[in-house]
Amino acid sequence: MKLRHLVATLAIGLTFSAAVNATDRGKAYVSNQDGGVSVIDLNTLTATGNIDVKGEGPRGLAITDDGKLLVVATRENGSVSIIDTATNEVVQQIPVGQNPEFVRVRGNFAFVSYEPSAKGGPPPAPGSAAAKEAEKAAADDDEEPARIGVIDLKLGKKVREIVGGPETEGIEFSADGKQLVITNEADNTVTVHNMKTGQLIKTIKTQKYGDRPRGVKVSPDGKTYVVTLEYGNKFLVLNKNFKVLRTVDTGATPYGIAYDRKGERIYVAANKAKTLEVFDAKTYEKIKDVATGNRCWHFSFTPDDKEILLACGKSDTVFVIDAEKLEVTKQIENKKMPWGVVTYPKSVGSLDKPL
């Protein structure tokens, strides 16, 4: 009887514990260019602390599938910081190369873009005198292209590189995991590479549609890709073979882009328009413009898909948007220039998504 009573008690306790855990909405991690990574409790939608990443200029970040490690690119010291999410402590810093920016994680590997020839600051506006000077300098100097450093997280070191184009901006995996898709801002191309060998498979030139390709995302069914053109004020739609199907007009200077989990809608952060724009993913008709703030580049859904968190660096704020009503419901103050945001459990967004 006593044993049965003990077993019953344990079963009730485990059921209660599971119920409590089931209500935990998880955490969001926000990279701040002026210092560290902020942690947001998604149960209360409040900032609960800041992680010292042991490096300056954090930008791209990604989290492993099990949520145990956070990988953060730190621009100024040319490395990524590996953070134990149980302690919020840096457990390792891995050299990558000059100006690391975007981070994506797949399995035990982190893919990190870096730019050996970057001179700092964004490329000049197309057609401007500065742009013409830059083009001439590039032709004369034979600048080194950007690269994607592949880091083995188990070994804790960079194991190989994939050569991209100049000023690599976005990284995406094909649905089958065999190809890596890269947007190259400075030469207006999207390049497709074999994931294992790094071999260049295809180059898509964007200039006739618009300049400065930046964000890139594949649809949940793997049949289409969308790419924002910052100086085209539109996004491209490509099929699974990377043929351009159409363009869709957006507000000024679109950057971060993502599908929702079901692939029914497309979300675009339009920087200078100060909006998060929502489109029907089948008709490409605009559903709504959500007014936001200044320099809003990257965003993520919460794991339960109820809210969208949008990092707005020049507004010192992370905007919280109701995903059903498409209305801003809260602003989480962040005085350290928020750049990007990811969550655990992993969710869809402009930087990350569950694989």
Polypeptide structure, described:
There is one protein chain. This protein has 355 residues and is mostly beta strands. The strands form seven sheets. Strands 3-2-1-28 form a four-stranded antiparallel β-sheet, with no helix packed on it. A hairpin with a 5-residue loop joins strand 12 and strand 13. The longest helix is centred in the N-terminal third of the chain and has 21 residues. The protein is globular. About 5% of the residues have low confidence.
Main beta sheet: 4 strands, antiparallel
Note the beta-strand portion: over 45%
What is the rounded Rg?
Answer: 21 Å
Order of helices and strands: HEEEEEEEEEHEEEEEEEEEEEEEEEEEEE
Mean of pLDDT: 91
The first-to-last residue Cα distance is 47 Å
Q: Give the tally of β-strands.
A: 28
Helix content: under 10%
Strand order across the biggest sheet? 3-2-1-28
Shape: globular
Structural class: mainly beta
The stretches of 5 or more residues where confidence is low (pLDDT under 50) are 6-10, 12-20, 137-141
The number of distinct helices, counting runs of at least 4 residues, comes to: 2
Itemize the secondary structure elements and their pairings.
Layout: H1 2-22, E1 27-32, E2 37-41, E3 46-51, E4 58-63, E5 69-74, E6 79-84, E7 89-95, E8 103-106, E9 109-114, H2 129-141, E10 147-152, E11 157-163, E12 168-173, E13 179-184, E14 189-194, E15 200-205, E16 211-218, E17 224-231, E18 234-239, E19 244-249, E20 254-259, E21 265-270, E22 275-280, E23 286-291, E24 296-301, E25 307-312, E26 317-322, E27 327-333, E28 338-344
Antiparallel strand pairs: 1-2, 1-28, 2-3, 4-5, 5-6, 6-7, 8-9, 9-10, 10-11, 12-13, 13-14, 14-15, 16-17, 17-18, 18-19, 20-21, 21-22, 22-23, 24-25, 25-26, 26-27
